[in-house]
Amino acid sequence: MIYNIDLNGKLTKITDGNYDYTSVSLLGDKLVATRQSISEPTDIYTVEASAGGKITQLTQENKHILDQLQRGKVEARWTKSVDGKQILSWVIYPPQFDPNKKYPTLLFCQGGPQSPVSQFWSYRWNFQIMAANDYIVIAPNRRGLPGFGMEWNEAISGDYGGLCMKDLFAAIDDIAKEPYVDKNRLGCVGASFGGYTAMWMAGHHEKRFKAFIAHDGFFNMDQQYYETEESWFTNWDLGGAPYEKNEKTERTYPNSPHRFVEKWDTPILLIHGERDYRILASQSMAAFNAAKLRGVPAQLLLFPDENHWVLRPQNGILWQRTFFAWLDKWVKPVKGGSKN
Questions:
Q1: Residue ranges in the chain modelled with pLDDT below 70
Q2: Distance CA 109, CA 148 (A)
Q3: Active-site residue, from 192, 237, 258, 284
Q4: Cα separation of 307 and 263, whole Å?
Q5: How far is it, in rounded angstroms, from Cα 90 to Cα 76?
Q6: Do 49 and 36 form a contact (C-beta atoms < 8 A)?
Q7: Residue 52 backbone class (left: φ over 0; alpha: ψ -120 to 50; beta: rest)
């Protein structure tokens, strides 16, 4: 959304609709803005700077590709969490969705940890590609994400294994009640804090999921404190060093995924960039070894030339192929039968 606030503090909403406006600049008596959504990559628009003003699309950079694709429906879904508060999730359906069929379903766990699950477009974590592979996707705005007030956003700091995880369980459990969701074919995927989430859930999910994918997540929170280049963040969000005894550290460090490996029993794919200095690749290597030592099916994909993101196109293609090969193997039913 784009809003205008005048010098008297009057706030006026200029735009509407389910879009992310990623930049806005003045252009005479109009605005020029870039806009994207879960279903549309970024293009440039002009916006009349008044409530309900006309919006004109200036570029159609990917029209020749988008015209060849059928995209799935995207809708908002509200779910009540364990404490009665409402969680907004985006649900993305397969392009030829049939409510009389049952679909494998993916829980997307956002990173950040304080980054919104908005109408963002990604060339890697692309919900429409996931839906086109015949998965329903649910992407919740769990505790710790901006857009729902400071209390909601700050609730995650010092509580990594707490209400934020219960929010995610509430969202997947709620949609699993729908007749078109195959509750026996659920997957859990995420990157960064979402990767931590997938590894944490591997020790807590109580048989909900058939497979996990953790990209650039941290497995050992004690190790993360000492090796990250983002020390200010661990001091703030984790509460300080593992040896410091305060309210935050005594809640966060006991929720390190490595402390629950004895409960791991579900296939897990680990992906990491070896130039990631925010969360070092050693975290995924350790998680991979932990799974293999437990006898849990596991795969490790390392990118020697990537950092906390996968930015090179050829690496992105390999990422997508590996991502869906893993999910198709462990989450989708076998043709002509079903997996246990």
A1: 335-340
A2: 17
A3: 192
A4: 30
A5: 5
A6: no
A7: left
Residue 92's beta-bridge partner residues?
74, 137
* Domain range summary for the chain, segments of one domain joined by +: 3-64, 74-330
Residue 215 a catalytic site member: no
| pLDDT tens-digit series, residues 254-278 | 999 999 999 999 999 999 999 999 9
CATH of domain 74-330: 3.40.50.1820
Take residue 244 and report the two structure tokens written for it: 């410091």
Which tokens hold the place of 247? 């309210």
Cα-based angle 235, 89, 334 (whole degrees, multiple of 5)? 105
Q: Which of 215, 216, 276, 284 is catalytic?
A: 276
Which pLDDT score, from 0 to 100, does residue 339 have? 55
User: How many Å apart are CA 89 and CA 168, to the nearest integer?
Assistant: 10
Six-digit token string for 169: 């369980």
Sheet holding 55-57, edge to edge: 20-27, 30-37, 40-48, 55-57
Quote the radius of gyration of the chain (alpha carbons, Å): 21
Going 37 to 42 to 43 to 46, the CA torsion angle's sign is positive
Q: Look at residues 220, 216, 215, 212 and name the one whose alpha carbon lies nearest to residue 238.
A: 220
Q: Would you call 192 a catalytic residue per the annotation? A: yes
